[in-house]
Amino acid sequence: MSLDTLLQHIYDWSISESIRANVSAFPMLESLHVLAITMVFGTILIVDLRLLGFASHRRSAQKLITELLPYTWVAFAIAVVTGALLFASNALSYAHNTQFLLKMVAIVFAGINMGIFHLTAHRRIADWDEAMPPPTAARLAGASSLLLWVLVIFLGRWIGFTLEVVF
Amino acid sequence: MSMISFSDWLYATPAATALRDTAWVIPTVQSIHILAIGVIVGSAIVSDLRLAGVIATDEPPRTIVRRYLPWMWWALAVLLATGLVLVIAEPGRTLNNTIFWLKMGLVLFAFLLTLAFRKPLLDPDFELERGFDVDPDCEDDRAKWRAMVKPAAWLSILVWTVVIFCGRWIAYT
């Protein structure tokens, strides 16, 4: 089965069809998606700025991370679920949209960046928990994360201007 | 001049035409608008959840308010500036749209709420959890005010959520 056949199958799912058929479904999913993404960006921004060396509402970087990360993850999960439903409603169009593909690449890079941070600077966080400025590795992770999430939001908005919707 | 003839006039101005004719302007300005909403949401979530007693309860509310209130003002300035550009470029879809005006009303309400329930916390003599120790005569009023902080914090989160929904819905009405 080719990729396009699979995408056509997803397009034909009854849930995809009902999203296309119900005029409120798409804007409702989009609103939830935007809400989730602003929560992801807003909470991650606070952590990223702390990693860059800007003071947060608490001195300890570790405390800040454990305090905010659950909210980031819940919001990210909502963004993935709503995003998947938006994708399903027009699977072929999204899969052939450059901005959408670049957005997925940017999210993967954000994940890799987070993974590297957790395997390196975060392992030694006890050494720099309250230090200002944080070590270079932490500042690099914060800067990359911030840039990647800004890129994700730009690309996401650009999809709306380039997607060729099929009804 | 009615709102419709005003928005028709605005639509035809050289500034509006120039904004529409440059393909990247509207998506870029919208992206910056969403980033600014992200800053508001992040600041509002952390400070409202603190005032609601959910997170960072080991830090005084003042520390959190002092950290994030300026972020909210900066984000508001960016939101209004980018929002203004979007209205000038496409007045028809905003000025003649009920959802747009509902959104404006809610943003105003959210900021009045933010001012009313955050500003007093910046007073170094004020302790949200314990109240003023200095002036027992006024303690009754302040106790009432303190009791309003938690509901106001949850209301603030709710209002920002509705604002975001309205923002997306402007495109569909």
Write the layout of secondary structure elements.
The complex is a heterodimer of chains A (167) and B (173).
Chain A lengths: L2 H10 L1 H8 L3 H28 L8 H29 L1 H5 L2 H22 L5 H4 L7 H27 L5
Chain B lengths: L2 H10 L1 H8 L3 H27 L9 H29 L1 H5 L2 H21 L20 H32 L3
Structure description:
The complex is a heterodimer of chains A (167) and B (173). Chain A is mainly α and 167 residues long. In chain A, 80% of the residues lie in helices and 0% in strands. The longest helix of chain A has 29 residues, at 61-89. The model of chain A has no long low-confidence stretch (mean pLDDT 94).
Low-confidence stretches of chain A: none
Q: In whole angstroms, how far apart are the ends of chain A?
A: 23 Å
Helix content range of chain B: over 70%
Largest interface, counted with CB-CB under 8 A?
A: A-B, 29 and 33 residues
The largest β sheet of chain B comes out as: none
Q: What class do helices, strands and sheet pairing of chain A give?
A: mainly alpha
Note the main sheet of chain A.
none
How far apart are the termini of chain B? 23 Å
How many separate helices of chain A?
Answer: 8
The shape of chain B, in one word, is elongated
Query: How many strand segments of chain A?
Result: 0
The low-confidence runs of chain B, each spanning 5 or more residues with pLDDT under 50, are: none
- From the alpha-carbon coordinates, what is the Rg of chain A to the nearest angstrom? 19 Å
- Overall, the morphology of chain A is elongated
Proportion of strand residues of chain B? under 5%
Radius of gyration of chain B (CA) equals: 20 Å
Relative helix content of chain A: over 70%
H-E order of chain A? HHHHHHHH
Alpha plus pi helix count of chain B: 7
Question: What is the string of SSEs of chain B from the N terminus onward?
Answer: HHHHHHH
